[in-house]
Amino acid sequence: QLQLQESGPGLVKPSETLSLTCTVSGDSISSSAYYWGWIRQPPGKGLEWIGSIYYSGSSYYNPSLKSRVTISRDTSKNQFSLKLSSVTATDTAVYYCARGAAEVEWGQGTLVTVSS
Amino acid sequence: EIVLTQSPGTLSLSPGERATLSCRASQSVSSSYLAWYQQKPGQAPRLVIYAASSRATGIPDRFSGSGSGTDFTLTINRLEPEDFAVYYCQQYGYSPLYTFGQGTKLEIK
């Protein structure tokens, strides 16, 4: 059974870098033909795809965030990570890690607040 | 960039009624790559319909999806109290890789 667990700081200061890690169990991020990525949801708003890393290692990013986003992976730990630089209050959101093909399977999400 | 527009923004119905939710794409979407999710407060979204018309595991048969090209519909017959939630459509494959509609809130009248 697939499990996705987000971890990382719940509070980040403006202009700093948001860093989150997703630990995967029940599947392998390097051998299973899925996209492994991040989706966020600001409080009371809709869903926004941030980016994904394919099992082969190729990365894909939302053009609206591409200049600030890096998604990487550690296959030895079966984890993948998100870094979002130069954050502002508008980056405050619940961040979900996810496994995707045509459909998305979700972690439980973690709230990250950007505030000084 | 493909845009998904959902309507209505809010739908107020009573238990036992039928809900019809619309998702319109700015360009044609493969039916294989159109999904619907249900989200309740404080929870992650849950897959309801995939490939436009296939019910996900554990989803009751009162949920159905239809459509093709640019127009897709989620229908919920005989609404149950647990069906009241926000519903999102999602497409896969265009740049961005995933796009979501803005959501339809299904609320109890």
Mind summarizing the main beta sheet of chain B? 7 strands, mixed
What sort of overall outline of chain B do the alpha carbons produce when their principal axes are compared? globular
- The end-to-end span of chain A amounts to 39 Å
Give the CA-based shape of chain A: globular
**Class inferred from helices and paired strands of chain B:** mainly beta
Q: What portion of the residues of chain A fall into strands of 2 or more residues?
A: over 45%
Rg calc of chain B: 13 Å
Mean pLDDT of chain B: 96
The overall pLDDT of chain A, averaged over residues, is 96
Count helical runs of chain A. 0
Please tell me how large the radius of gyration of chain A is. 13 Å
What pattern of helices and strands is seen along the backbone of chain A?
EEEEEEEEEEE
What does this structure look like?
- The complex is a heterodimer of chains A (about 120) and B (about 110).
- Chain A is mainly beta and about 120 residues long.
- Chain A is about 0% helix and about 50% strand.
- In chain A, the strands form 2 sheets. In chain A, strands 2, 4, 5, 6, 9, 10 and 11 form a 7-stranded mixed β-sheet that branches.
- The model of chain B has no long low-confidence stretch (mean pLDDT about 95).
- The interface of A and B includes residues 35, 48, 62 and 104 of A.
